[in-house]
Amino acid sequence: MKAQTYDRIKTLVDIPADFGKSLIPKGTIGTVIECYERPKEGYAVDLTILSETGEPGFEYENVILYPEQFSVVSDTPERGNFISVFGDINYEVPQVVQEQSTPSELPKNLADQELA
Fold this sequence. Notes:
Elements: E1 8-11, E2 15-16, E3 23-24, E4 29-36, E5 42-50, E6 58-65, E7 70-73, E8 83-84, E9 87-88, H1 108-115
Antiparallel strand pairs: 1-4, 1-7, 2-3, 4-5, 5-6, 8-9
């Protein structure tokens, strides 16, 4: 697989918008949301597009891209964080920490049973 979920990508060609009638220009930055292996390698990508209405901000488009249509980038000059249809989100996966109980933290009757 060329990319992984949450990788930043840059389009290498103009991409037809799935829900619009326009072309998404070459060089558009996006975030990989899902990866597919079947029926062929493909990626669901949220692309960040400058608003065409003249208003400040961005528009977003979700498209399926194939490996030859994009390259993975480590960072972009305009943003160091991921941008998706959900706005700026920290995509860190929470780590599960398992703490071990000590006898002083156990209920009194359970601590007595373990010490016996």
